[in-house]
Amino acid sequence: MARMTKQAQTMIEQAIYLPMVLKILKRDLQIIETSELKLKRPYQDLIKDVFKKVERDLAAVLTYLQHEEITVNEVERDETFTMYCFTYKGQEERHNYFNPRLKKQTENLLTYYFFQKSPYSVSPSADSGSAQ
């Protein structure tokens, strides 16, 4: 495979993690809506606001990937690993991601979006490399 730039690596990882973040936020919003909380609206508004930010960032990531002709697809999943197929500059490569790592990185992104802070750069717009 052609040597991938740090930005391309970051964007590919964001294309994996951001949809997971959206799925979690959507599920959490449904849980709050059916919960017995007395004041649901502040929680709903907070989650909806974060959801919009993640959607915006994911749209930017997908635009970048389309412009650079990069594709990212999940091809296989088991209890331990999830395999993704990347196409970059016409060449295909497959990578296994350890599921606990996927979960931890998704959690780190949730922390970033809720609190805008993290022990390392996980911002989709970060140029400093991939979120690890």
The quaternary organization reads as single chain
Helicity level, as a percent range?
40-55%
Largest sheet data: 3 strands, antiparallel
| Total of DSSP H or I helical runs spanning 4+ residues | 3
Q: Give the overall shape, derived from the CA principal axes.
A: elongated
Class inferred from helices and paired strands: alpha+beta
Number of strands: 3
How are the elements arranged and paired?
Elements: H1 6-33, H2 41-67, E1 71-77, E2 81-88, E3 91-98, H3 99-115
Antiparallel strand pairs: 1-2, 2-3
Describe the structure.
This protein is α+β, with helices and mostly antiparallel strands. It has a domain at 6-68 and 101-115. Helices cover 55% and strands 17% of the residues. The protein is built from three helices and three strands. It has helices at residues 6-33, 41-67, 99-115, and strands spanning 71-77, 81-88, 91-98. It has a three-stranded antiparallel sheet with strand order 1-2-3. Helix 1 (6-33) packs antiparallel against helix 2 and helix 1 crosses helix 3. The longest helix is centred in the first third of the chain and has 28 residues, at 6-33. It comes from Peribacillus asahii. Pfam families: YhjD (PF26325). InterPro entries: YhjD-like. This is YhjD.
Brief account:
The chain is α+β, with helices and mostly antiparallel strands.
Descriptive labels:
YhjD; 17% strand; elongated; alpha+beta; 132 residues; three-stranded antiparallel β-sheet
